[in-house]
Amino acid sequence: MTRPRAPRWSWRTRGATSADDRGSATVELAIALPTVVVVLVAVLGVAAAAAAHLSCADGARAAAREAALGSSDAQVVAVAQRVAGAEVSVGIERDAAWVRVEVRRPAVAWFAGADGPFTATGSATARVEP
């Protein structure tokens, strides 16, 4: 008795098996690729917004420490800009015992123009040094 032979494997029959299936991989790639690009842009946007928020928080912390030491508003703004970037806006509120600094900047400027629809904010409060 003879054993039936297994079908031979060939590169030609590996992918599409009939004429109806030809080009289906190309169509699937054409549908999936834009989705992957949109997800990638969203992830990069979230990462850029998180980095902007962290730099604002660091700038506010450093500026609040500088203000607590009794520096002028111009020096406090210079410290915030040095830490968080030149495009930040700085708000300073002084009290008898406390100082509060708020730093703002566009979060995702490359996504929607120079102003951007999203703003990152960081604030810090420090006790004034005697």
Folded structure, characterized:
It is built from four helices and three strands, in the order H-H-H-E-E-H-E. The model has no long low-confidence stretch (mean pLDDT 84). A hairpin with a 3-residue loop joins strand 1 (89-94) and strand 2 (98-106). The protein is of the alpha+beta class and 130 residues long. Strands 1-2-3 form a three-stranded antiparallel β-sheet. It has one domain (26-127).
| Low-confidence regions | none
Strand order of the largest sheet: 1-2-3
> Main β-sheet: number of strands, strand sense, barrel status?
3 strands, antiparallel
The percent range for helix content is 40-55%
What proportion of the residues form beta strands (DSSP E)?
Answer: 15-25%
What series of H and E elements makes up the topology? HHHEEHE
- Strand element count: 3
**Broad shape:** rod-shaped
Which structural class best describes the helix and strand composition?
alpha+beta
Integer count of domains? 1
End-to-end C-alpha gap: 104 Å
What would you report as the Rg, rounded to the nearest angstrom? 29 Å
- Count of individual helical segments: 4
Rounded mean pLDDT score: 84
